[in-house]
């Protein structure tokens, strides 16, 4: 660990924005949990280090900023390895000391869900700007409390909304904004893939994902995503009916030891949205993929329909819609796939995590409002909590409106 990591900084020095040797403003950033899969690949390597290595980003006002990461975690050896591998000067196992150092302006959290809320509380108390993965807490009550604490402390916050930045969903947003669909009627989503049980092939996901006592479960993992996708593209979620299932209870952990899954590995949800739109989304880690991409959304409207995935998007306008006739006695040789047209990729799409990071950094430096905040994150936790309640009670659950008042 370097001496600069936790060395005291004078109030006079910390009050001035730091600049690097190229005269670019340098934003110190605490990155907690980068040894995990998502924190390492998407946030550290593909976002923050990519921004650093290109010399920073240019803001709308013409100024330029870059980032300087401080790695935080429990294992000094792992942090040292990451720091050496990527040319990072600073790392520490002492989160409290890092938060007390004014040179680090932003706290970024990629911890497991159970550890997140307590760390966010510390960051809020320290007055740090916050950028965090979701879900922001284990319960909606705690998620909303964090949002209120941040507001009271005057802390800017951001929550990862990465699915909105997928090329396919950006194409979908453009179709919606152009009025292509007319009145949107329904949304059908399919997400998932087969996660191996861990006995004869290693599982692709950590074992805690399948233990409710450790914060696992596909509803907690995916419903916060579906909330911000639905509310930002189609309309606020008003009600949810969900059925959770533990389809495979026998699994094997990272050490090859057997355990019994206590958290659901699949969830089937129906969501009523404002504007009388009905959304159905299946989420599963126990499905073998027979679609073009691991996630697909089929949107039907009065004037047209679209099927979008991570990257691709295809459309069918009402003027090009065939007229099927149901006849189970005759084989149908019509090529329905050929009736769809691909939406061209007219833009250069960068990594979605990095794009959102750049937008958040710009909002932080320019002090502009940022809509994907802790309150938005709390709405995602609310949908997950309501989905679990719906499955337990076997009924449709209405979602209340969350407010910081």
Q: Major beta sheet, specifics?
A: 9 strands, mixed
Mean pLDDT: 94
**What is the H-and-E element order?**
HHEEHEEHEHEHEHEHEHEEEEEEEEEHHE
What structural class is derived from the secondary structure elements?
alpha/beta
Task: Assign a percent range to the helix content.
Answer: 25-40%
Q: Write out the strand line-up for the largest beta sheet, numbering strands in chain order.
A: 18-17-16-15-9-14-13-10-19
Model regions low in confidence, pLDDT < 50 over at least 5 residues: 1-15
Strand content: 15-25%
| Straight-line N-to-C gap | 43 Å
Please provide the count of β strands. 19
Q: List the total number of helices.
A: 11
Radius of gyration, whole Å: 23 Å
What is the approximate shape?
A: globular
Summary, kept brief:
With 405 residues, this protein is an alpha/beta fold. 33% of the residues lie in helices and 24% in strands. The chain has a nine-stranded mixed β-sheet with strand order 18-17-16-15-9-14-13-10-19.
List the helices and strands and how they pair.
Elements: H1 3-6, H2 11-15, E1 18-19, E2 25-32, H3 37-53, E3 57-58, E4 64-72, H4 76-86, E5 90-92, H5 95-100, E6 104-109, H6 113-125, E7 129-132, H7 140-153, E8 157-159, H8 167-178, E9 184-192, H9 218-233, E10 237-245, E11 250-252, E12 258-260, E13 266-273, E14 277-284, E15 295-301, E16 304-308, E17 313-317, E18 341-342, H10 352-366, H11 374-393, E19 397-398
Parallel strand pairs: 2-4, 2-6, 4-5, 6-7, 7-8, 9-14
Antiparallel strand pairs: 1-2, 3-4, 9-15, 10-13, 10-19, 11-12, 13-14, 15-16, 16-17, 17-18
């Amino acid at each position: 660990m370097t001496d600069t990591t936790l060395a005291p900084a004078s109030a006079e020095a910390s009050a001035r924005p730091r600049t690097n040797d190229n005269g670019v403003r340098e934003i110190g950033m605490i990155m907690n949990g980068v040894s995990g899969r998502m924190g390492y690949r998407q946030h550290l390597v593909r976002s923050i280090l990519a921004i650093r290595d290109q010399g920073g980003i240019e803001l709308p006002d013409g100024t330029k900023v870059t980032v300087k990461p401080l790695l935080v975690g429990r294992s000094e050896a792992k942090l040292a390895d990451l720091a050496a591998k990527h040319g990072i000067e600073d790392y520490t196992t002492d989160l409290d000391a890092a938060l007390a150092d004014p040179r680090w302006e932003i706290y970024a959290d990629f911890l497991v869900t159970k550890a997140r809320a307590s760390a966010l509380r510390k960051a809020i108390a320290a007055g740090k700007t916050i950028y965090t993965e979701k879900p922001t807490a284990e319960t909606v009550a705690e998620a909303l409390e964090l949002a209120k604490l941040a507001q009271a402390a005057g802390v800017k916050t951001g929550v990862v909304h990465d699915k909105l930045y997928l090329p396919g969903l950006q194409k979908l947003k453009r179709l919606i904004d152009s009025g292509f669909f007319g009145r949107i009627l329904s949304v059908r989503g399919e997400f998932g893939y087969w996660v191996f049980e861990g006995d004869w092939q290693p599982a692709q996901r950590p074992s805690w994902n399948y233990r409710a006592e450790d914060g696992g479960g596909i509803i907690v993992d995916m419903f916060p995503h579906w909330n911000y996708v639905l509310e930002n593209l189609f309309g606020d979620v008003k009600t949810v009916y969900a059925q959770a299932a533990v389809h495979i209870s026998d699994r094997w952990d990272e050490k090859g030891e057997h355990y019994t899954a206590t958290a659901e590995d699949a969830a089937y949800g129906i969501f009523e949205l404002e504007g009388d739109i009905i959304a159905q989304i299946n989420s599963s880690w126990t499905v073998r993929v027979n679609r073009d991409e691991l996630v697909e959304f089929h949107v039907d409207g009065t004037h047209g329909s679209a099927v979008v995935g991570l990257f691709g998007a295809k459309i069918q306008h009402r003027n090009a819609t065939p007229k099927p006739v149901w006849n189970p006695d005759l084989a149908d040789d019509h090529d329905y796939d050929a009736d769809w047209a691909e939406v061209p990729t007219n833009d250069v799409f960068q990594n979605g995590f990095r794009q959102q990071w750049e937008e958040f950094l710009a909002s932080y430096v320019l002090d502009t409002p940022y809509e994907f905040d802790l309150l938005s994150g709390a709405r995602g936790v609310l949908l997950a909590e309501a989905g679990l309640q719906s499955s337990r009670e076997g009924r449709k659950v209405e979602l209340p409106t969350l407010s910081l008042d």
